[in-house]
TrEMBL record:
Molecular function, one GO term: DNA-directed DNA polymerase activity
Name of the featured protein: DNA polymerase V
Coiled coil residues, start to end: none
InterPro entries cross-referenced by the UniProt entry: DNA/RNA_pol_sf, DNA_pol_Y-fam_little_finger, DNA_polymerase-Y, DUF4113, PolY_HhH_motif, Rev_trsase/Diguanyl_cyclase, UmuC
Record key words, sorted: DNA damage, DNA repair, SOS mutagenesis, SOS response
DNA repair recorded as keyword: yes
Organism name: Halomonas caseinilytica
C-alpha cells in the first residue's frame, strides 16, 4: 500500500508552531515583497479570502485586527519540511517528497491491523516531533492514496487517517461522490470533455473503457483509470500533468565539481521556467536539492535541500535561474560526489495575479519587454529544438532586497533567531 502524508495548511501551521497565539485565528501568508496571499488557514478560507488576493485589499480587515498576515519565511518552511521527512523516515523504508508539504510513503507487508497502527503512528509522530498537524491517506495506488488523504482532510469522522482498499463499499461510495475534476492529475477542462461522454464522477471513470479513452485522450487518463481500480501504474517520480513543476535528473556519473552542478541546476531551472510559462503560471519560490548515491556505502553521504523565495512572483527564466544558482551555492559542499540534482517551483499563481502584484514592483516598465523576450525564447526553442537558446550567464543587478514587513524568525536554522521564552 501507498500512503500520502500531507501537512494541513502547511505554511500557516509552521508559523503556529512558534506562535501558538495564532491558533484558531484567520491567518494568511504572503508572497515575497508581501504581494499577495499564497497560504491560508481554515479560518481565513472560511472568510472567503482567495489564493492570490493582493495584500492591499486586505488592509481594512488587517487594521481592524480581524486577520493576521505574515511574510513568507521559506527558510523556516523548508527546514520544517525536512524535519517531517526525517520523522517519516524513522517509521517507513521509503519516503518520496512530492512537494514541500506532501510525502508519499511505502507501507509494505502489513496486515489490516498493522497498517492502521502504522498510519496512525505516522499521524501522531509528525505532530509530536514537529508540532505540525497532518492527514494520512492510504490506498493501493497513488491516486487512491491521494483521494484517501482528501477524505481524511475533509471529514472529521476519519480523525486524520483514511485507509481505502480497492473494492470496498466505502471506496465505491467515495468514488461515486468524487467529481472527475477532483481526481489527482485531471483538470477541469478534461472533466468537461468527459462529461460529454456521460462520465461524471470517479466511479463512472473507473468503469469506463481505458483503452478507448487512451486513444481519444491521453495515456495519463488511462493510467488514472487503472489506478482508480487499484492497479498501481504511476511511478513515484512521475509527474506528467500532476500539477507540480519539478525538473530533476540523475547524472550519468557522480560528480562533485562545482561547474557541472551549476550547469545541471541552470538547465533544470530553465526547463522548469519553460513549463511554468507553458501552463501560464507564476512561481513565488523554488526548492533546490542535491543527492549523493545512497547505495554507495563506501562514500560520504550528503542530501542537502533549500527553499528560497524568488524576488517576486515570476515566470521569467532569468530570476529563476539566478535564484536556483544562489541556492545551489548555499547547499553545495566540496568533497561529496553528487548523483542527482533538481529544481522544484513552489506556490504557483495564475498569470493574471501578476497584474496586481506588479503595482508594487519597480520594474513595471520592463515587464512587457521581458514577456516578449520569454515568448520569443520559447517559440525559438520549440521550433528549432530544445536549448537552441539557453542561459549561460547569470543576470546581474537583480533587485535582491526583499520587503518582508512581518517576517517571523527562522527559529530552526539560525542561532540568533531561536524562540525566546519568558519565565
Ligand atoms: Mg498540504
Amino acid at each position: 500500500m501507498i500512503g500520502l502524508v500531507d501537512c494541513n495548511n502547511f505554511y500557516v501551521s509552521c508559523e503556529r508552531v512558534f506562535q501558538p497565539s495564532l491558533e484558531g485565528r484567520p491567518v494568511g501568508v504572503l508572497s515575497n515583497n508581501d504581494g499577495c496571499v499564497i497560504a491560508r488557514s481554515t479560518e481565513l478560507k472560511a472568510m472567503g479570502v482567495e489564493m492570490g488576493t493582493p495584500a492591499f485589499r486586505l488592509q481594512p480587515c488587517l487594521q481592524r485586527g480581524e486577520i493576521h498576515l505574515l511574510s513568507s519565511n521559506y527558510e523556516l518552511y523548508g527546514d520544517m519540511s525536512a524535519r517531517v521527512r526525517m520523522v517519516l523516515e524513522e517509521g517507513v523504508d521509503e519516503v518520496e517528497p512530492y512537494s514541500i508539504d506532501e510525502m508519499f510513503v511505502r507501507l509494505e507487508g502489513l496486515d489490516d491491523a498493522a497498517l492502521t497502527r502504522q498510519a496512525r503512528s505516522l499521524y501522531d509522530d509528525v505532530r509530536r516531533y514537529t508540532g505540525l498537524p497532518v492527514c494520512v491517506g492510504v490506498g493501493p495506488t497513488h491516486t487512491l492514496a491521494k483521494l484517501a488523504n482528501h477524505m481524511a482532510k475533509s471529514s472529521a469522522a476519519y480523525q486524520g487517517v483514511c485507509i481505502l482498499t480497492a473494492d470496498s463499499d466505502e471506496t465505491r461510495y467515495l468514488l461515486r461522490h468524487t467529481p472527475i475534476g477532483d481526481i489527482w492529475g485531471l483538470g477541469r477542462r478534461l472533466a468537461e470533455r468527459l462529461a460529454l461522454l456521460g462520465l461524471r464522477n470517479a466511479w463512472d471513470l473507473r468503469n469506463a473503457d481505458a483503452k478507448t479513452l487512451r486513444r481519444h485522450h491521453s495515456v495519463v487518463l488511462e493510467r488514472t483509470i487503472l489506478e482508480l481500480r487499484g492497479i498501481s501504474c504511476i511511478a513515484m517520480q512521475d509527474d506528467e500533468a500532476r500539477r507540480r513543476i519539478m525538473v530533476s535528473r540523475s547524472f550519468g556519473r557522480a560528480t562533485g565539481e562545482w561547474q557541472h552542478l551549476r550547469e545541471a541546476i541552470t538547465q533544470h531551472a530553465q526547463h522548469a521556467a519553460e513549463k511554468l510559462r507553458h501552463q501560464r503560471s507564476l512561481a513565488c519560490a523554488l526548492y533546490v536539492f542535491l543527492k549523493t548515491n545512497r547505495h554507495r556505502h563506501d562514500q560520504p553521504q550528503h542530501t542537502p535541500e533549500l527553499v528560497v523565495a524568488l524576488p517576486h512572483p515570476t515566470n521569467d527564466s532569468r530570476p529563476i535561474i539566478a535564484t536556483a544558482r544562489r541556492a545551489l551555492a548555499r547547499i553545495h559542499r566540496p568533497g561529496y560526489r553528487y548523483m542527482k540534482a533538481g529544481v522544484m517551483l513552489l506556490d504557483l499563481l495564475d498569470t493574471e495575479h501578476h497584474q496586481l502584484s506588479l503595482l508594487d514592483t519597480t520594474d513595471d516598465t520592463e515587464h512587457p519587454r521581458n514577456e516578449r523576450l520569454m515568448t520569443t525564447l520559447d517559440t525559438l526553442n520549440r521550433r528549432m529544438g530544445r536549448n537552441t537558446i539557453s542561459f549561460g550567464l547569470p543576470t546581474a543587478n537583480a533587485p535582491w532586497k526583499l520587503r518582508c514587513g512581518n517576517l517571523s524568525s527562522r527559529y530552526t536554522t539560525r542561532w540568533g533567531e531561536l524562540l525566546k521564552v519568558k519565565a
